[in-house]
Amino acid sequence: MSNEEILTLKAEAQRKPIGVFDSGVGGLTVLRELYRQLPNESIIYFADTARLPYGNRSREEILQFGREILSWMVQQDVKMVVVACNTTDALALSTLREEFNLPILGLILPGARAAVQKGSRLGVIATPATAASNAYRHAILEIEPTAQVWQVGCPEFVPLIEQNRLYDPYTKEVAQQYLAPLIDQRIDTLIYGCTHYPHLSPVLRELLPLHIWLVDPAEHVVTATAQELDLIREKNTFPPLPTRFYVSGCPEQFAKLSIEWLGFTPAVEKIYLPPVALSPLVSLESVD
Ligand code: DGL
What does DSSP assign to residue 250? Predict the structure, then answer.
């Protein structure tokens, strides 16, 4: 292969989009960080709005959804995937990484790394599935065995955010109940263990004592993404294409809800994800 041909191939690889997905508008907190830290990247965003919330679902369901989304993203020719959903990270990321041959980044490890730099009494607010999986506790203790971790599952937050009820007094009441046990434990750091929750930051900040650090793993997964792109020499140096938004549910509803957080009206397309067959690995696991 000539030098010229190699350069053309490299340029093609760089230009490929990054795939980002979540159950809904939560992943927009990651998308915002991508725009901030990696403004040259083209992005494909998928929100599985027909099946949200993910946070009450089983590992089998989350894994199956992850497979369908990743198979579709591979067809879209993405160069890597950022899983902008802690629930998928907690329940399915390690299996998805074994099954798909492209870099797949998750939030939990970068979030845990950032949190132990800030404090030693760490609170995590997350979906019930993420909290029950103990994924944050395990990740944190592996990095810093002396840290103390308290995790609270917050089942009402995602539906309230998806219904745009951020400033509803009821949301504040619910938030107060979720945060109370963490404040009682005198946490010094709070991790947003679900990508939807930074949308609630004005409400949460009002309720939390001022000295508590807030860690948003979105910021740190994007830093990790930038490092990975440097490592594989696929950081885009060309002008990016506009972000393409896809949903499994109602495109108008997603567009309407996103405007405030994106600062523009996204063009959103509805897609149907074909089911993928279970791999032998999973069939074996489900026999146990
Ligand atoms: N935003 C996702 C997360 O980080 C999923 C929330 C949900 O659908 O319950 O966990």
Answer: -
CA of 88 to the centre of ligand 1 (A): 8
140 and 193: one domain?
yes
pLDDT tops 90 at residue 8: no
- What is the distance between the alpha carbons of residues 224 and 18, in angstroms, rounded to a whole number? 13
Is 119 in the same domain as 185?
yes
Q: Give yes or no: residues 230 and 92 share one domain.
A: yes
pLDDT at 278 over 80: no
Structural contact between residues 153 and 177, judged by C-beta atoms closer than 8 angstroms: no
Q: Are residues 120 and 209 in the same domain?
A: yes
Does any ligand 1 atom lie closer than 6 A to the CB of residue 195? yes
Number of domains in the chain: 2
Residue 174 has a CB neighbour count (10 Å cut-off) of 19
What is the distance, to the nearest Å, from the Cα of residue 158 to the centroid of all Cα atoms in its chain? 13
pLDDT of res. 28: 98
The mean pLDDT value of the chain amounts to 95
Query: Are residues 129 and 251 located together in one domain of the fold?
Result: no
Q: What is the pLDDT of residues 95-111, one digit of tens each?
A: 999 999 999 999 999 99
Convert the pLDDT of each residue in 211-262 to its tens digit.
999 999 999 999 999 999 999 999 999 999 999 999 999 999 999 999 989 9
Q: Are 152 and 229 within one domain?
A: no
Q: Are 168 and 160 in contact (CB under 8 A)?
A: yes
Pocket test for ligand 1, best of 51, 54, 157 (most atoms within 8 A of CB): 54
150 Cα: distance to centroid of ligand 1 (angstroms): 19
Do both 47 and 76 map to the same domain? yes
Output the pLDDT for position 199: 97
Q: How far does the centroid of ligand 1 lie from the alpha carbon of residue 197, in Å? A: 9
With respect to residue 93, please indicate whether it lies within any of the assigned structural domains. yes
Q: Is 14 in the pocket of ligand 1 (CB under 6 A)?
A: no
Beta-carbon-side half-sphere exposure of residue 109 (alpha carbons within 13 Å):
13
pLDDT at 48 over 90: yes
